[in-house]
Amino acid sequence: MTINTLAKGGCHREQMACFRKVRLLDHVLFGCIYLFLLLWCSTESLHLGNMLVKYGYIYPLKEPRCLVLRPDESPYRFQTPYFWTSTRWPASELDYAIYLAKKNIRKQGELMEYEKERYSLLHKRINHTWDFVVMQAREQLRASKQRRKADRIVLECQEQAYWLINRPPPGVNNVLDTGLERPNSFSCRVTLVSDFIIEACRKALGRNRVKSSICLEGFLKYSEQYLNHDPIMQGCLPSNPWISDDTAHWTMNAEIVPVPTRLRVERWSFSFMELLNDAMGRREFMTYLEKEFSAENLYFWQACEDVRHGESSKIVEKVEDIYKNFLAPGAARWVNIDSKTMDKTLEGIKRPHRFVMDDAQMHIYFLMKKDSYPRYLKSDLYKNMLAKAIVPQETKKSVFPFMRRQRHSSPSPAQTATQAAEEEGLAKGAGANSAAGSHF
Amino acid sequence: KNPFRCRSLPAQRKYMRSPPTPEMATQEVPLNETLAHLKTESETLKSKLEEERAKLHDVELHQVAEKVEGLGQFVMKTRRTLKGHGNKVLCMDWCKDKRRIVSSSQDGKVIVWDAFTTNKEHAVTMPCTWVMACAYAPSGCAVACGGLDNKCSVYPLSLDKNENLAAKKKSVAMHTNYLSACSFTNSDMQILTSSGDGTCALWDVESGQLLQSFHGHAADVLCLDLAPSETGNTFVSGGCDKKANVWDMRSGQCIQSFETHESDINSVRYYPSGDAFASGSDDATCRLYDLRADREVAIYSKDSIIFGVSSVDFSLSGRLLFGGYNDYTINVWDVLKGTRVSILFGHENRVSTLRVSPDGTAFCTGSWDHTLRIWA
């Protein structure tokens, strides 16, 4: 039983909420349009006006098939609410057939090529009701003849505008296309959902919340700290590759470089996660830890990450390796975990699964974060790195701005990875330690 | 009957928590509780929760942001236009190398581009139309995609020009309705998916095994995003039930839930620090939700914006929020002050997807006008 078949009824979902908003503006539509006319120079009002034309709320008189709002003196007219897109009439094949029939009867040869094609297609498809179509068309034409000529012309224009939206000519975007249908709410699952809601609410009521003022200050601090690192906000040195066609910025900030940039080294001091996420940062930190004789912590953490994110089939093997190298008494790289966590982990290792090392990993992570990381930032190793780091010169705009630099391609990561895998394969054959091979 | 087909190895089955199926869950509800009773209880709890949340709300974001300098003139242009799709572009993702992207479209084509040179490097034709989800693997060696086939498949990227990528395709995820979004977790080995069947799921790529499933949405789930946190264990999803839920990947539990939007949530994206996330909805607004304060803290909307938001993303520092809209434009918001900084024109039809590049130098948009654009 699929969930799809359970969907019945369901509540009304606003998929094109924009139309609801326009309906609310119905009675002030006049005022809005007037305002647009006054703000002609504003690109946004022109854009919004264009949307109104595209969706059929206003239609052009001069070139009815060109649904664009021109910022000149071309005349437009408001569409009658009867034909507004927000009414969401089905605009059935029958209605369209009647419209085309009317056009055909009124003036032979008035139908455009694509309309003729559609007319004959409809004639085939709904042939069984064709008498009704022709009869309706004739009736409507007769009724319209009794109106004043001016009214008749307006009505014809309005109807034409309506069908240009609902049955656009070939090559024109169908603005009423809303993409895939999204099935309605699963009303039959309400019991299950109410259960979840109640459970979630109860949990939430017991949650510790932080005052807004504290949380929001956090955003300010973060944005300020990273401001210089945000290329879209402050630009980047030597230049933004997308703008200048020069990939120097990427070359200078490649994963492993002889000398990193200053911004990059500064970023390592923002948080422990920033340091670990950067391959060079992690390498530097490892060097520091080795000096302090606590490198096993980082090796352990890396091995645990490998378990968490690696292949399911290798979990058992990897956990065994971790036990041998880091947890077993007398292990080569024994890590110092508190006894409670150690007991829990050893117990869990008996039935290894993906998350069995989580507690131990977190313990070591926070140990490094609170202890080794702050000391690293104060160390000579880091300070020297920061001093050596380069600050690229801003590339001056080229003398001939119209000459475009050649855009060079770069080796695909897929290629470098296959090479690396081959090299690693060779190294493995030579008996190297596989734990050192992880690269995150 | 389990709605998910589990291709798990017998030995590991005991470590996989199987989700309660909808049928099982309804049986757990005491028989004498009527629907109405449940509803009133959930309504009362919800209003109580709102009261509790309001108690600690002592200031608004834009008030706190008054002391921050305003942003000046903002100029961003299309720097690259990628043409090659034959139909609506529905989704795209960046490679970690900061210049390659993968994109998918309505006609079933998935293309990998070097966006910098605009060269197409790989192309795959899926056996289904409406490929609504695609993702680049962290290693850069594979892409995942899916849509109306209800599956998520992984294609290793081969550099052999003669090799047919479809030959090495691996079917990983299996849902009972369309796949709306997919994302690799920290490695190439696991994929998180969301589907029109109302659930999200975590899969092991190698074996195709379901590792965890996430139930709680009352309608189609349209989007998801993984949290950039230290412990890396949560993600947020948004759906047609107007809710944004935060989930624990290990236990499958919904940790937090937010329901303030007035229509479908099309896109969710974490703030770079991981303490908040933004959402974009068909109700024409983007909203910011703070996870520690446990509430919505900002709404980004304007009277002149009446079309829905299809996708959102933050700039690197989190100061700017980019939104792709159904009226063909991109609105750029000042996250702190709540004002719109700029409006960008260029696409000739709906903007369906928007992602900022991994190093924040540019962002890419995909549109129903069959093209992708890089803006910087």
Automatic annotation (TrEMBL), chain A:
Residues 404-440 are annotated as: Disordered. Residues 409-420, 427-440 have a biased composition (Low complexity). The keyword Transmembrane helix applies. Signal peptide: none annotated. The chain crosses the membrane at residues 22-40. Gene3D superfamilies: 1.10.1240.60, Regulator of G-protein Signalling 4, domain 2, Transducin (heterotrimeric G protein), gamma chain, Winged helix-like DNA-binding domain superfamily/Winged helix DNA-binding domain. Residues 271-386 form the RGS domain. One of its GO terms (biological process) is G protein-coupled receptor signaling pathway. One of its GO terms (cellular component) is neuron projection. Keywords: Membrane, Signal transduction inhibitor, Transmembrane, Transmembrane helix. GO terms for molecular function: GTPase activator activity. It comes from the Eukaryota. This is Regulator of G protein signaling 11. It comes from Neolamprologus brichardi (Fairy cichlid).
TrEMBL record, chain B:
Pfam families: WD40_Gbeta. InterPro entries: G-protein_beta_1-5, WD40/YVTN_repeat-like_dom_sf, WD40_G-protein_beta-like, WD40_PAC1, WD40_repeat_CS, WD40_repeat_dom_sf, WD40_rpt. Residues 1-25 are annotated as: Disordered. Gene3D superfamilies: YVTN repeat-like/Quinoprotein amine dehydrogenase (2.130.10.10). It comes from the Eukaryota. WD repeats lie at residues 82-123, 172-213, 214-257, 258-299, 309-343, 344-376. GO terms for biological process: heart contraction; optokinetic behavior; signal transduction; swimming behavior. Keywords: Repeat, Transducer, WD repeat. May interact with RGS9; this interaction stabilizes both proteins and increases RGS9 GTPase-activating protein (GAP) activity, hence accelerating the deactivation of D(2) dopamine receptor-mediated signaling. Belongs to the WD repeat G protein beta family. This is Guanine nucleotide binding protein (G protein), beta 5a. It comes from Neolamprologus brichardi.
